[in-house]
Description:
The complex is a heterodimer.
Chain A: E1 4-7, E2 10-13, E3 19-25, E4 31-37, E5 43-50, E6 56-57, E7 68-72, E8 75-80, E9 89-98, E10 105-109, E11 113-117
Parallel strand pairs in A: 2-11
Antiparallel strand pairs in A: 1-3, 3-8, 4-5, 4-9, 5-6, 7-8, 9-10, 9-11
Chain B: E1 3-5, E2 10-14, E3 19-21, E4 24-26, E5 32-38, E6 45-49, E7 60-61, E8 72-74, E9 83-90, E10 96-98, E11 102-107
Parallel strand pairs in B: 2-11
Antiparallel strand pairs in B: 1-4, 3-8, 5-6, 5-9, 7-8, 9-10, 9-11
Amino acid sequence: SAVISQKPSRDICQRGTSLTIQCQVDSQVTMMFWYRQQPGQSLTLIATANQGSEATYESGFVIDKFPISRPNLTFSTLTVSNMSPEDSSIYLCSVRASGRGGSYNEQFFGPGTRLTVL
Amino acid sequence: AQRVTQPEKLLSVFKGAPVELKCNYSYSGSPELFWYVQYSRQRLQLLLRHISRESIKGFTADLNKGETSFHLKKPFAQEEDSAMYYCALRGSNYKLTFGKGTLLTVNP
């Protein structure tokens, strides 16, 4: 399994500023994912971050707005840049790791970062 | 494109009653289907996956390719089952697509 921690757990930010969210995993993982969950909505994949390569962004998300770093196999950051109230959301880090049975790649989720933009 | 539909946003049942949370999907290939659960103040966690044909906490889900469904069932609901349930699909690109979720409330 994989245990994921995120910092900060929540924040309230002003419009136009940026926030960097950190994701730390207790084991080395190849694939890390960043999701967004807007109020009343489902989880939407922002990007996939693999160590040693540029993050791959989903349709509707761009690197200038959501730059991602992946310096090693246990850590990643997501920055929400030039924030607006529409960015108010929960941001979740997720990884693929061995899960039940050992041989199956399961996806684990962090506790999330609740962001409110005023 | 892959899509997951959970038609019920809210579902309320009484303790001991059967419960079924519906999930339909759209995917052109062979999908992997999952149910994730999020209890109050806890993180999202995997409940079960179709490939294992397992029963977890009394819940089962059968993949019906003909009806493109993966409904979650439990014969006798318990109060501790109250949570948000998400159906998810993973295609060949390893990306998970989630439904909008169903909030299950089990009343005493």
